[in-house]
Amino acid sequence: MKKTRHAALAALRPVAAALGLACTLGAAQAAGYPDQPITVVVPYSAGGGADNAARIIAQGMGEVAGQSVVIENKGGASGSIGAAYVARAKPDGYTVLYDASAFSINPVLRKLPYDAKKDFIPVSQAVSVPNILVAATGSAFNSLPDFIKAARANPGRYTYASYGPGSLAQMAAELLKKDAQIDVVHVPYKGGAPAIVDVMGGQVDVYFANAASSLNYVSTGKLKALAVSSAARMPDLPNVPTVSEGGVKAFDVVEWNGFFLPAGADPQVVAKLQDLVQKALARPETRDKLAKLGLTPVGSSAADFAKFVDAEQVRWAEVVKTNNITVN
C-alpha cells in the first residue's frame, strides 16, 4: 500500500512542477505586459464612429506603452461577429474588444454565439456621447413637451428614425415611449446618414441622433434640437434642455465605447490594460482629437465599467420586455 501511494505521489510530482512552472511563466508574462503588439478588434466597419474613436485611443495607447496597438475591423451582425471572435481568442491580453452600446443591447434582443456576461471582462469605458433628439427645421415641434403632447393626442401618427433595429437610437426612443407613455412608430435605416437626411426632409418626425454626427447640423441650423438625452445639458448646446427637463424624469442615455478582454485574462493584465487606457485618455492630444468628434473621454476602472455594463443590460432588457421589441 505504501509503495503504491509513494508511486502515485512520485507520478504527480512532474505534473505539479509543470503547473507551478506554468503559473510562474504566466505571472512573469503578466508582469511584462505589454511586450508585443496589441490587436484591438472593432466589431464595426472602418470609418464609423467607434472605429474613428478606437484609432485615436489606440495611437495614444501605443505611445504610452511603447508597443504597436493595431486596429482590426470585424464588422457585421450589430457587432456580434467581432465580439464572438474576441470571445474565442487566447486570453493573454493581446486581443482586445473595443465595443459600443450594442454590447449591452444585443444580449436582450438577439441569440448570440457568446455569453456577454461570462465570456468577457470589462476593462474600461473609453468614451461617451449623448444623443440629440432632432427634428426638421420646419417641424411644428419646438420642444420635447410639444412632441409628447402631440403624440399623446395622436397615437401611432408620428414616427422616429433609427440607424438600425436594436441600435441605441431605437432603444432611446423606446425608453422615451415607455416613460412618456406615447405611441410613435419606428422607421429603421441602414445607418445614421440616411436617417438624418430623411429627418431633415420631414419624412420622419424625430430622431435620437448621435451628437458626434448631428451636432454640426444643429449648430448650422439644418436640424432643430428638441432635447439632449444625457442627464446634464451639453456644453456645446447650453440652451437645449435635457429630456428630464422636458418632463421625462430620470432619463439618462448616452452612447458609449469601451474595452473588453476575453474571460480568463490574468487580473494583472486587466489592471495593466485599464491603466494603459486611462493614461492614453489623459493625454491632451488624445482628448483634443476625441473632442473634435464630440466625444467625452471617460477612462473608468474595470470594476466601475462592469457595474455600468450590467446596469445597461438590465435597463434595456426591461425596455425590450415592456415594449415587446423584436428584431429579425
From TrEMBL:
It comes from the Bacteria. It holds the Pfam family TctC. Transmembrane segments: none annotated. Keywords: Signal. Residues 1-30 form the signal peptide. This is LacI family transcriptional regulator. It comes from Achromobacter insuavis. The keyword Signal applies.
